[in-house]
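We read letters as residues; the integers encode the fold. Take this protein.
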Amino acid sequence: MITYPRLFIGGSWVEPSDPGLLDIASPHDRSVIGRAAQAQRVDVDRAVSAARASFEDGAWRLAPPAERIAVLRRFDALREESAGRIADLISLESGSAGWFTRAGQPGLTRQANAYLKAAEEFGWEETLAPSDPASPVRSVVRREAVGVVAAVIPWNSPFSSATSKIIPALVAGNSVVLKVSPENSLSMGLLAELLERAGLPAGVISVLPADRETSEYLVSHREVDKIAFTGSTRAGRRIASIAGEQLKRVSLELGGKSAAIILPDADIEQAVAGVKFGSLLNNGQSCIAQTRILAPRARYEEIVAALADLVASLKVGDPGDPDTFIGPMISPGQQQRVRDCIQLGIDEGARVVTGGPQLPDGLEKGNYVTPTVFADVDNSMRVAQEEIFGPVLVVIAYDDEDDAVRIANASEYGLSGGVWSADEERALAVARRVRTGTVMVNGASIGFDGPFGGFKASGIGREYGAVGLGTYTEYKTITV
């Protein structure tokens, strides 16, 4: 039993305002695996007050960038040393299959390195040459910290979501209150331990597990200068309205319903093998999952059959089992939602080629669903338009490249996507036409040096690399 009876506020472990602890349930069998304190409004006030005091004090924000970079490198080294423990803990509390949590650890290193490399090369202060040689005025342009950042993250990939925000926010000199989901109280408690060991000044960082009501209180707090949010589009709209009313800076990484376009010349075996990871990663609970599979009409049934064989062959079960590819959903509520969406697809007239709303045999005690592939799907169906957040794929036929691009773009979302072709230039030409923030050609992974984020209802702003770092700074111009 793992227990976190205190809250990490301003760099110290303190008694919570509510002494009651939340039971953390295993998605695998719903047994209690840990207990943790949960933040209330009083605790948010304490964390924001500590952040504001540390920011105004200036010990962190006014330190040379090289000093801040060194502290964040120390934090990431500590995180690397704990990689195995992190992976196991996320599998235990979130139900993410072990292959996924282990594979994600090197990605965290690449993510951190990209941010810190960008910070080393960042134009923190630059002097501009006068546009008019006769002018005596010089402009000194500075990039300074925004202030107090409220970083709010979801439950599906907690370490990646957390570090994608706190590393750039901190290295830019901000003070941060990180609000995490109650379901991740254990892994985020470990994150807090690592931050404590990294040696940040008092007040600069807090980690608060809390419910949605408390989260809204945090983002509405008048002492918060910027909101950085990852989560659902519905919640993002609410946060954007709060930010707009208070003129807070805001960045939003929201939902997706991404399309994988399989062009007629693609190697079907290779494309389907790529769909296994691009569409079903983290049990399908991923905003970048490519859950709409667009197949050329001439090869439609061939692709449907290949996808059905793949999905039916995947082992569903205990995330701690090394042979498991798909684990349970995060909660009973999410399990029921995915099953309801599968039934909705049936009711809409889609053809189930594997799976269905029934529970997997022998896994009735946990939050499991049966991985499902739908064929004969029209892009206007709800199962093709709504983010299901589970292992459910829909296969949509298209006539030609123009039709494929039209279908891919016919979505309120625009976060990610993929294109498969034997001709890389052809794939690139199609990728350029798809209106999403990221497109992966032939299964290429996301790079952390380039910006990541969404078009349309998939968000505002970008993360990763120099662009992501820049969202945590303000421009100041001094004329001399």
